[in-house]
Specification:
Number of helices: 9
Strand content: 5-15%
Largest sheet: 3 strands, parallel
CATH architecture of the largest domain: 3-Layer(aba) Sandwich
Low-confidence stretches: 79-85, 114-126
Order of helices and strands: HHEHEEHHHHHH
Helix content: 40-55%
Oligomer: single chain
CATH class of the largest domain: Alpha Beta
Strand order of the largest sheet: 1-2-3
Number of domains: 2
Radius of gyration: 21 Å
Structural class: mainly alpha
Length: 203
């Protein structure tokens, strides 16, 4: 986590310590970020843009990208950065987001999924993150066979085509589809496909 505010770094450390899914590689100031990231090679670099950094952050982000193409770079956006170029960033999050929403966005980045663009600055909105998580939770309730069928109907296959692919009868597929719609809390195959895509890609 990169910030010129010692308070912000400490606050982030304390918050992330409550989430067992994350290991904090380290914290540093903006002046130290290139050396720190070269040494630690983190999966995600969280930049605090809510406090005016001592160095130009857009140039620093470009150098970070040149240094490590694999790390995901996220900016916690503050008023000081609203008009800057954010093309080099993987996500832009409002510093006003709750910490839970920020952590969900980081999980999305680590998983390699894409959260839909919603804000004027190109980053995911909190609503997008919530929708993504809700879709993932719904899909997680499906059995392995139901997920298999969901993927096939998302590809546009009919019950007969699904049955032929899986070597089961169309009537059996119909029963599976009915259960899938119920578990996903939707009324149609199209709506089920939307949930499946949102759970996979975030949009």
């Amino acid at each position: 986590m990169v910030s010129d505010s010692p308070f912000a770094r400490t606050e982030f450390e304390e918050a992330i310590a409550t989430d067992a899914q994350f290991d904090l590689a380290g914290t540093c100031s903006w002046r130290e970020v290139l050396h720190c990231c070269e040494r630690l090679r983190p999966d995600v670099i969280v930049l605090d843009g809510s406090v005016e950094p001592a160095v130009g952050w857009t140039g620093t982000v470009r150098r970070l990208r040149e240094l490590d193409q694999l790390s995901k770079i996220t900016l916690l956006l503050g008023e000081t950065a609203r008009d800057e170029d954010v093309d080099e960033l993987d996500a832009v999050l409002s510093a006003e987001f709750g910490i839970a929403a920020i952590f969900e966005a980081l999980r999305v980045l680590v998983s390699g999924a894409v959260v839909s663009v919603g804000s004027q600055c190109g980053g995911p909105r909190e609503a997008d993150i919530v929708a993504y998580c809700a879709a993932r939770e719904l899909v997680s309730a499906l059995t392995s066979r139901e997920r298999e069928i969901l993927l096939l109907i998302t590809d546009g296959l009919s019950n007969r085509e699904v049955g032929s692919r899986l070597r089961i009868s169309p009537d059996t597929v119909k029963e599976h589809v009915s259960r899938i719609l119920g578990k996903l809390e939707v009324a149609s195959r199209l709506e089920a496909a939307v949930v499946a895509v949102r759970a996979e890609f975030g949009y």
